[in-house]
Amino acid sequence: MHIAILTFQGFNELDSLIALGVLNRIKTPGWRVTLCCPEPEVTSMNGVTIKAQSSLEEAEFADAVIVGSGTKTREVVETPALLSRIKLNPERQLIAAQCSGTLLLAKLGWVSGIAACTDLTSKPWVQAAGVEVLNQPFFARGNVATAGGCLASPYLAAWIIARLVGLEAAAAALHYVAPVGEKDDYVANAVKNISPYLA
Amino acid sequence: MHIAILTFQGFNELDSLIALGVLNRIKTPGWRVTLCCPEPEVTSMNGVTIKAQSSLEEAEFADAVIVGSGTKTREVVETPALLSRIKLNPERQLIAAQCSGTLLLAKLGWVSGIAACTDLTSKPWVQAAGVEVLNQPFFARGNVATAGGCLASPYLAAWIIARLVGLEAAAAALHYVAPVGEKDDYVANAVKNISPYLA
Questions:
Q1: Contact A145, A139 (CB under 8 A)
Q2: Which of B25, B84, B30 is CA-nearest to residue B59?
Q3: Across the interface, do B35 and A48 touch by the CB < 8 Å criterion?
Q4: By the 8 A CB rule, do B174 and B154 touch?
Q5: What are the distances in angstroms from CA B53 to CA A43, A50, B98?
Q6: Distance CA A16, CA A42 (A)
Q7: What is the model's pTM?
Q8: Interval B148-175: pLDDT, tens
Q9: Which of chain A's residues have a Cβ under 8 Å away from the Cβ of B48?
Q10: Hey, what domains does chain B have and what are their CATH numbers?
Q11: Rounded CA gap, A127 and A130, in Å?
Q12: ipTM higher than 0.85?
């Protein structure tokens, strides 16, 4: 299994790295989680430079793709040279978007006629793309999921684990990363958020 | 103000990057948050390579220091050549540790006779260093704070903001990153965790 986390210049560290950390709690052979970038190195909205672990072209062959967030998403969706490198297919892949990443799904038409989650800053842009924005942290229909607010990233990661491995594995991954003394409450709330979308 | 986040080889992405993201919500001139590393590049426990933003030697002059976590903390605390580069002083700096980072504070003697928080994996090592480990996400005494569980990182960052800027700024930073639809509850719980330690 390969889960590619699309991570562009100006990326939000929380949105790409929280998902990566939670997803890497799965230790089964062949489970691979990568920061999937347009260039060999990308620099975050706060000046953190990371090395790419896969290229945008590899996302086409991933089992699941998370579209990360960042300060340059509006530029990304207006750059045909970037968009043409991203070939996704919700019929054979799980597609998830975090915060402004939802705008990319909106532009590609994959949340049209569905509702979606995004952060408060990106909300007007997603609405302008014709998508209803929900006041909740997580929503999914079929193979397409969206989350809003950086700290909803664990829900998005947990939904992917639940879909690819199982809900028990997702709960265990969340339990590991949850705050000490709050672990049971944290997991219960997260499961409440994602379980309606695991039918 | 400079906040240095000590980030070693094998670092836990959540523990260093969540704190960095929350701390960077403060936009006042001169506010600087850096990943502070022993080498120009470090690679995380899950293979993410990042570029250092400051050197270990610069932590001596930071206003606050967070000791990040990772899979190699036990090696770090047994490596005099690394430890000798870290000159901290809780009398004139805020010192905070996340998860296995607490082990470094324990080895340096700064949580001796105090209690501390850490993650469940690091708990026996911290106890073996003679420190009482609490079943709660956050604890501080004076200028030394510790947190346990990756997703307690926002509490540690919020405590630093509250101490250096104010509780209102800390709450605003947390509100921004909290999940949509859960923001008020999230901030209230975080403030409940840190406010007893802001006397």
A1: yes
A2: B84
A3: yes
A4: yes
A5: 12, 12, 19
A6: 12
A7: 0.97
A8: 999 999 999 999 999 999 999 999 999 9
A9: 17, 20, 35, 50-51, 53
A10: 2-197 (3.40.50.880)
A11: 5
A12: yes
